[in-house]
Design a protein that fits this description.
It is built from no helices and 22 strands. By secondary structure, the protein is mainly β.
Length: about 350
């Protein structure tokens, strides 16, 4: 997940719930205003950093607190008005199957002892928990922050939130809390915590060319939403040059399901196999191959001759078994007996 605030829209929910009272004139906003004239100090430009480089510096869009009643849009605060404001990432970040998940961002905030920012996280819509520094203040340049926590790992919905608090102290106004370039990343552990994609069902195990198979698949553990590709081997079970069966989606936290696959019309043999690979996003996985199944070149036309007993002058006993003439045109469908 990356949020640079440069695309005209952002994933944050502003001033609508979370931690604190969510009140006061000092409110969250996203813009690229750095001038505080004529009432407030200027926000430091983004080329003024303790370390690192901010995307779009020196004057990119950023998330910050400002005095909404003043009409001045940079990172400022009205210290005569008590405020308690919270904002959070409205679109959760999925970390299923990931370890070593970290959040990083740049921040600036002078504030004072009682005017400062806080950082919180929430898992699967649960309670908000404070993390990072006890107070984000006393920082006149942009600073790179890195947050790690075992609680971030292997969860379906992870959200980050920022809180601003200040009393009505009447002290001199300083720059307020500003945030930019938020990034969340994690690493898939294919050795210590591997996830397998396996085939539980192939039906039927003998099929005519061009007919459909029903494939049942399963994941050994939940992963984040992903795109998966069906592949079919050659008649010897080799995937050196697989047949592409198309893609489908699996959505977290689902771990099993069924999908259809139409067999090719130009192959036949006794040991074809199916596998399902995860192709995007990370982790990319090669699925386990299914058992062998057979593809037959089924006749499209069957014409039988009439049974002799139906054409001569002899009699037939009650309950005798006889052959009946029939004609069949077209390949047998799934579930029909083979010719």
């Amino acid at each position: 997940m990356t949020e640079t605030f440069e695309n005209g829209t952002n994933s944050f929910d502003f001033n609508t719930g979370g931690v604190g009272t969510n009140s006061g004139n000092n409110q969250w906003v996203v813009n690229n205003v750095y001038s505080g004239a004529p009432l407030y100090p200027n926000t430091p430009s983004e080329d003024s950093t303790v370390s690192g480089t901010i995307n779009g510096a020196p004057y990119s869009h950023y998330l910050h607190i400002h005095d909404a009643a003043s009409g001045i849009g940079n990172a400022n605060l009205n210290s005569n008005t008590q405020s308690d404001r919270f904002t959070f990432i409205g679109s959760p970040f999925c970390t299923l199957g990931m370890n070593n998940v970290i959040f990083t961002f740049f921040w600036t905030c002078q504030g004072d002892t009682n005017a400062y920012g806080e950082v919180y996280y929430r898992i699967d819509g649960g309670p908000w928990t404070q993390t990072g520094l006890p107070k984000y203040n006393n920082q006149s340049k942009w600073k790179y922050e890195r947050l790690s926590n075992p609680a971030f790992n292997n969860v379906q919905n992870l959200q980050l939130g920022f809180r601003w608090v200040n009393p009505a102290s009447g002290v001199s106004s300083n720059t307020s809390f500003g945030i930019d370039d938020i990034i969340a990343v994690g690493a898939y552990q294919n050795i210590s915590n591997p996830v397998n994609v396996s085939i539980n069902l192939i039906y039927p195990l003998t099929v005519c060319q061009g007919d459909f198979l029903t494939i049942g698949y399963s994941l050994s553990a939940p992963l984040c939403d992903g795109t998966y590709r069906i592949q079919m081997s050659d008649a010897n079970g080799s995937f050196a040059n697989p047949v592409d069966g198309g893609v489908f989606s699996v959505f977290a936290p689902d771990t099993n399901g069924y999908i259809g696959f139409q067999t090719p019309t130009n192959v036949q043999g006794n040991c074809f196999k199916i596998r399902i690979n995860r192709v995007s996003p990370e982790p990319q996985l090669i699925g386990q191959a299914s058992v062998c199944f057979t593809i037959q070149n089924c006749p499209a036309t069957i014409v039988t001759t009439g049974a002799p007993v139906m054409n001569d002058n002899d009699t037939t006993c009650i309950q005798s078994v006889i052959d009946v003439k029939f004609n069949s045109y077209g390949v047998f469908g799934p579930g029909n007996p083979n010719p």
